[in-house]
């Protein structure tokens, strides 16, 4: 692959969180698909992908962790969050329960994660928003994000809408925080 650790200026970890089935793995594979390395770690149930991004004149290597299905069993351990500087907190706009669970994810993230972890709240599956299947309005996501001080975006992993933007938003904001 094009870069190794020695060539990048910053290396940081970010995590994907949110209920099972909201689209975390598809968001990650969309984002990582160009320059990507997917390391499967079936024994600990975590996968991660790398993506190198240029911000200004610096090369940033983002290591993004996916839960690999462990969220189903509430088996995510503190090591998953440890050292993460960013998080994409994902819900499914067609499943209200996944939106209502955001508070719990946020609580866990703040308990186990870095104190000033950068969080982007993501309402995924926006491609289904024009049908009757939407259960969470965009305004609700926006309002919740505002009260919690998070960034917010609706995405579609299926149609590749806003996926790049959501990750890049998190990554450039982390870069801001860490420099
Ligand atoms: P995860 O459990 O959070 O990792 O979710 P997955 O990435 O495995 O996706 C769960 C299901 O939702 C799969 O059937 C995906 O095809 C579907 N899915 C994921 N993202 C989207 C999206 O943006 N739009 C639609 N319509 N379906 C999606
Ligand atoms: Mg998954």
Explain this structure to me?
The protein has 179 residues and is α/β, with parallel strands linked by helices. The two termini are 27 Å apart. The chain has a 7-stranded mixed β-sheet, sandwiched between helices. The chain is globular and about 50 Å long. The protein is built from 6 helices and 7 strands, in the order E-H-E-E-E-H-E-H-H-E-H-E-H. Bound molecules: guanosine-5'-diphosphate and magnesium ion. The site of magnesium ion has 4 residues, from helix 1. The site of guanosine-5'-diphosphate (GDP) has 14 residues, from helix 1. It is a lipid-anchor. One of its GO terms (molecular function) is GTPase activity.
Brief digest:
This protein has 179 residues and is an alpha/beta fold.
The set of bound ligands, ions and cofactors reads: guanosine-5'-diphosphate, magnesium ion
End-to-end Cα distance, whole Å, is: 27 Å
- Overall structural class, as computed from helix and strand content, comes to alpha/beta
Main β-sheet, spatial strand arrangement:
2-3-4-1-5-6-7
What share of residues is helical? 25-40%
Compressed to H and E, one letter per element, the order equals EHEEEHEHHEHEH
Low-confidence stretches: 34-44
Total of DSSP H or I helical runs spanning 4+ residues: 6
Strand content: 25-35%
Quick one: overall form? globular
Rg, alpha carbons:
15 Å
Question: What is the average of the pLDDT values?
Answer: 85
Q: How would a crystallographer describe the biggest sheet?
A: 7 strands, mixed
Number of strands: 7
